[in-house]
């Protein structure tokens, strides 16, 4: 069974940079909000742990992505079972201000003024989205989030 995991590697002032692996293969960078002991709505990374991935076809973001990525979109890849969080998706974005607790995909990263950002986010998303959907469809719907900060 291929394992999906995010390994968090570095913390900025308001951001967290991680690596997404599917089956022990590095797929892209992940940008999140800051890892905090106490949740601040829209400004906190999901806690380290093990979660379930699923496809959400009803959230508002789904309609935008369905239009934008019509040829491949099957629903937003959602991270489920997170305490005190809901509607956490993999999606495109560049800055920690784009996340609101979600996971942003990136092809490469930069550190600017103490915070990480990811770039070529849409290219990374187009790469990892079908891989994540395939994992879900094959029943490999578990994902680990590991802090190595």
Question: What does this molecule look like?
Answer:
The chain is of the alpha+beta class and 149 residues long. It has one domain (4-147). It has 2 helices and 10 strands, in the order ββββαβββββαβ. The protein has helices at 60-68, 121-137; strands at 4-11, 15-22, 25-33, 49-56, 76-80, 88-91, 103-106, 108-112, 115-119, 142-147. The strands form 2 sheets. It has an 8-stranded mixed β-barrel with strand order 1-2-3-7-6-5-4-10. The longest helix has 17 residues, at 121-137. The protein is globular and about 40 Å long. The two termini are 27 Å apart. Residues 6-131 form the DUF5675 domain. This is DUF5675 domain-containing protein.
Q: SSE layout and pairings?
A:
Elements: E1 4-11, E2 15-22, E3 25-33, E4 49-56, H1 60-68, E5 76-80, E6 88-91, E7 103-106, E8 108-112, E9 115-119, H2 121-137, E10 142-147
Parallel strand pairs: 1-10, 6-7
Antiparallel strand pairs: 1-2, 2-3, 3-7, 4-5, 4-10, 5-6, 8-9
Pfam families: DUF5675 (PF18925)
Protein name: DUF5675 domain-containing protein
Organism: Parapedobacter koreensis
């Amino acid at each position: 069974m291929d394992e999906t995991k995010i390994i968090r590697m570095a913390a900025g002032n308001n951001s967290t940079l991680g690596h997404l692996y599917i089956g022990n293969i590095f797929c892209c960078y992940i940008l999140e909000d800051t890892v905090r002991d106490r949740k601040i709505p829209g400004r906190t990374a999901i806690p380290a742990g093990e979660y379930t991935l699923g496809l959400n076809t009803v959230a508002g973001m789904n309609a935008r992505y369905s239009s934008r990525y019509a040829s491949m979109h099957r629903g937003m890849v959602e991270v489920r079972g997170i305490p005190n969080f809901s509607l956490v998706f993999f999606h495109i974005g560049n800055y920690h201000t784009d996340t609101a607790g979600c996971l942003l995909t990136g092809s490469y990263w930069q550190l600017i003024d103490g915070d990480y950002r990811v770039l070529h986010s849409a290219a990374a998303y187009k790469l990892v989205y079908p891989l994540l959907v395939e994992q879900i469809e094959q029943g490999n719907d578990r994902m680990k989030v590991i802090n190595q900060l």
